[in-house]
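Q: Fold this one first, please.
A: Sequence and structure below.
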Amino acid sequence: MWLYQPFPEQTERWSHDWRAHHDRVRSTAARVAVLGRTYSPKTLHERNSWMLRDAQALVCVSDPEHRGGGTHATLQQARSRRMPVIHIDVRRRDTRLVLPHDS
């Protein structure tokens, strides 16, 4: 597993439990990429683009009725790149495999 962190202090405002979870996940990563020096929305979007660049498929956990934000934008990028998507729909409690020819 590879971990893409948009900036070093990303976890600074997270709860102790979430930071501990992040640290455990990070310690198991085969590769860690920290992309920027400080927070900016641009850095968050760049992190998402880097993840797609290095991926063969996307696993997306989202509410499809929410059409804003980074998750939705990343899903749209994956579709435009004709990547396979495993979409976990939290609203319908449904999981679908969307292949490039299906989108």
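Q: Good. Now the second chain.
A: Here it is, same layout.
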Amino acid sequence: MSLRVLTICTGNICRSPAAAALLGASFPGTLEISSAGIRAVEGADIDPQIRELLAGQELFPALHRAHTVTVSELSGADLILTMTAGQRGMVLELVPRALHRTFTLKEFARISADIVTDHTVAWAPRADEESRLTRMIECASRFRGRSSRQGSDDVDDPYLGTPKDYAQAFHEIREAIETIHAAVRS
């Protein structure tokens, strides 16, 4: 059974579908990835500027229809990655028991790197990426708040912003996912 990862942003047209596509490319065949919004633009496609940035990475997501996250989706996810701390809080208001598997994307990336450098978490010999990511999720809540790495855990919403805003958000998402992938592969 694949790990179920849910990415969440506000409208489900920019950040969360970008994160879902980039996660899928980083962990092909390993994860069952979906995205949703806190206040989704119901039925909308991926924002054209995000689609263009994904195409620049040779990623061409299938037809996307934005939707608002459901309690069922949250309850069924093994890992919930939001784009802001505020969204993480909203998720936890809906499903408080999801605390140990809900993080902002950048927070989980930072924690993933910390887990690897801490050396207190051991991987099973020859563990595959799914097993390592599962172990990382299990350990992540213990590392919450312990990082010496500074910076915001939020990826700002580029919607209706400048091309530079879109590029910045996309860069932050891609960098966080690359950090997670590198930690899992270490």
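Q: Anything worth noting on the second one?
A: The two ends are 23 Å apart (CA to CA).
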